[in-house]
Write a structure and sequence with these properties.
The complex is a heterodimer of chains A (295) and B (337).
Chain A lengths: L1 H31 L6 H17 L4 H29 L4 H23 L13 E4 L2 E4 H23 L1 H11 L1 H6 L4 H26 L7 H15 L5 H22 L4 H15 L8 H4 L5
Antiparallel strand pairs in A: 1-2
Chain B lengths: L2 H30 L7 H17 L20 H23 L4 H21 L1 H4 L13 H4 L3 H27 L2 H11 L1 H6 L4 H27 L9 H14 L4 H17 L10 H22 L29 H4 L1
Helix pairs in contact in B: 1-7, 1-10, 1-11, 1-12, 2-3, 2-10, 3-10, 7-10, 11-12, 11-13
The chains are: A mainly alpha (295), B mainly alpha (337).
Chain lengths: 295, 337
Amino acid sequence: MSQVIAAIGFGLVTASILSIASVGFTLQFGVTNVLNIAYGSVMISCAFVAYYFTTIGVPLILAAALGTAFGAVLSVLMNRVVYTPFIKRGTRLFGMIIVTISMGLIIQNAILCIVGPTFVALPVGSGAVRRLGSIVLTDSQLVVIGIAIAAMLGVHVVLKYTPLGKSMRAAASNAALARASGISVARVSDVAWGMSGALCGLAGVVLALNTASFQYTTGDEFLVVIIAAAVLGGIGYPYGAVIGSAIIGIGMEVASIAVGSSYKEIFAFAILVLVLLLRPQGIFADIAGRREVAA
Amino acid sequence: MNLAMQFYLTTLLVFLGVNVLACWGLNLQFGVAGVINFAFVVFQAIGAYTTAVLSMGPDTAYGGFQHYILGNKLPFPLPLLIGTAVGALLGLLLGMIGLRRLRSDYEAMVMLVVSVIATKFVTSDTGLLNGPAGLALIPHPLASTLGLAPIDYAWFYVGLVAVSCALCYVVVHRITNSPYGRMLRAMRENERAAVALGKNVAAMRLAVFAVGGGIAALSGGLLAGFIGAWSPGGWLYVETFTLFTAIIVGGMGSNLGAVVGALLVPVVFLEGTRFLPTIGSSEVMAGLQWIVIGLLAMAFLWFWPRGIVPERRSAYAPGELPSQGSHPALPLERHSS
């Protein structure tokens, strides 16, 4: 039993990283309607940017902030320079998937060409160990949980209480109506890519903080879990993504006791398949249904 | 032609044939029927693994240095045929997931996840198919019976692949150039309209999943028999992306286009780049190849979305509709029933 409770503790950490990543993924999809498979590659590129800054002596917190900012800038640029021109030219659903996979491959292999296939690690001491009953977490893991809570609250405030958030939600639920109401969908889309990119970058940095070491393919591997969490919560629906992340994150760690840690992604996958067979619009959302992701 | 050149040529020809097979299978699914199977390489893999374990004998052979299930030593065409059948069965199974109609990009994403997880699963379980190391010493079909010199055997294998391609072409050509092929295209163009016309869309989707899966498995089995080894590193999801790029470059929906794509993308780009001077390490070269493939896919989507050999449009121009008199062979009585 205590083993399960300890696993729930690790699950909270995984769920925290996952929620930052999946909220960014799903938010951008909700507003812009593009499924961005390059997300995992962008994520790990941000971790590498943060890593680069730490190697030239920048303090870790500043390096993390720079990694996050890099995610935002790269995402906005990707949308402006690549995705939007393709959409304007008439590339649709499947074509856009090919474009985003291409971008992911290009980013990921650019990292490979620049830094090589080596594993690197952020210079972070795990700090003191805190105990709460059977839950044992290090200071750095508590920081990760704290960052995630702060990020979620930030997203909530932006979406709920700012005019910008209101226009984003409007664009997500009905782009044509939003445009008719005088909302600049292009600007909103820029903001969505920026926010999503920042969350993506932050997720990359905290993923790097929490893993012993990372490599150019680490983000790609994590993408599978992000997709499972986002689909479970109803893709395009940020609040659903948080709940999806909690279920997948904690479930994965608990499952790893039962079936071994190398199979924990397979738990996420099993949930994904079940959701798709039973309720492809996700368990909470009605947005996905309205957007016709699933008929 | 000297011996080294002959070996190189036969290897390229086998790769080309295997890729042509795979592209035909994928083209049938995606190009013709509009079914997006981003787990395509998994079908190649299951064909390769099945063919391998059914021809290698029990895993206690060779001093038991590799572990796998279902080891058996069946005579030549059986492992390949069973592998093909298993691929078709997997197609039916995976096609079931796709029966819940999803938006096409969403479906692609889900299949991508299936592919990644399948690799992860086989890599994690070392007792299933020898884990990340993969299978080695897969017997070359008929090698001991024929007793040929290595180079003659290589040419024999080219012939085997060519025969497989010919048989496969008959199958895909008959499917795509038939009323059934028109139904598949109708499903691709407008699924609701196809349903409204009373076509069983679910059955058609399962059928292309099974046929395409079988062809993919056959290509995988042929490849494994030629190389003599098969491991998870050889069927990462990006391999499916290469095949999709080949179809896009060649021309979606066109069987000839699939051949052109198979020639240009996997063979020329992934093999031909060996002739270029090496820049940096081999990892950097591999990275550059993927960057080029990504750029190529985007360039074609931007400039030539219909590919080099566009699908022949079967529609008639206005005023060009054939009158019934011009088709005396049409069984008119069937229309009245």
